């Protein structure tokens, strides 16, 4: 997919699904920041195996986020709605810690932050 984030680790099998995955992940919002998880930079890794099992590694902006229990379920349901993705495991990590520099240019503009990312 053209213009896919280069800070998300993906494998070859997931490549054909990147566009529908991004479409789905831009509909999942962090309720406190009101920005989608793709542009917020909460996604670290997306892989797919030969059986259609998707592994999705993500983080949250802070520990104790109120959506930690519900968001992984929402993500899994949205990913399973994509033809070819049969099952999903969503895992959460806090290493590395999320930083504001992970917010995309679009996300920065939407939040009123300098689109240059402090550079």
From TrEMBL:
Domain of life: Bacteria
MIP18 family-like domain: residues covered: 21-91
Position of the signal peptide: none
Residue intervals passing through the bilayer: none
Pfam families: FeS_assembly_P
Name the record gives this protein: Metal-sulfur cluster assembly factor
